[in-house]
Design a protein that fits this description.
The protein has a 3-stranded antiparallel sheet with strand order 3-4-5, with no helix packed on it. It is mainly alpha-helical. Helix content is 59%, strand content 9%. It has 2 domains: 162 residues, no CATH class; 77 residues, no CATH class. Helix 4 runs antiparallel to helix 5, helix 5 crosses helix 8 and helix 7 packs across helix 8. The relative contact order is 0.17.
Amino acid sequence: MKAPLVVLLAVGLTLTTTQISTASNVVNSKNASNINKPAKMKKYQWATELCENEAYYDASKISVQNIEDGFEIFKRLTQVNLPNYAPYTPKELRQLSSQSIGKLEKDYLQLSTQVERLTTIPKQTNFDMSFFKKKLQQDITNEYQLNRLGLMAYLDIGQALKAAPKVCQEYLIPLNQSPEKLQAAWMSYTLEHIRQQEKIGNTDYRKNAMNRYRSEKAEDAVSYAKLGLVGYAWNNCLNNHYSKQELNPEQVNKAQQVFEKIVFKNTIKSKCEMP
């Protein structure tokens, strides 16, 4: 039997697929014989990518705001939530300033306030919607930290090194060294990335990557070395570090299915188009 998947969170919470499955079974067993709509049941309609859906919910226990906020939480758990002000060209790198960090912080504070105001349905047996709200808040904070460190690496390497995980620091150190060591580090990362792509079967990647490397080196060796080491190597390392704390799409989808069964019982009807 496959062991239940456990996700450990920075906020000190845990979630297992076994718990989600148990909650789903509890909801099914309680409502299998109660499909008829009570007097206080109200209709709710929503659309997904291919389907138009409608169902009924008990307005004496759950509000429309609870439902809409629940869907908002699950949607945001599977997407990027903050803009990225990182430079991608030498021109953007030259124009980068601390104002970008200020914009990012403003976006983060606004979104954090918005998420804090999201409501949740009452806690159920083995299913607590507030868990997912807190998880979303942690994800947004992680995304902010990742983007901020990405900008700090260009603007203040010393501060970025102090705040970053040690496993990622190797990509920043060459930026404080001689031009020769900077170029050597960029070349080393380029070859490392090529080998990674070849391991997964991307046999044409080496030729294209080396052509791009030679072109960028001829155009602006220093700027592209920084963009390669910070914008890709450093950022990928940070992303791998923070993504370990995220729920995967399958977990979010299963949790949303439980949420819908709790809210709508067995009343959901969908009209879907063929993809």
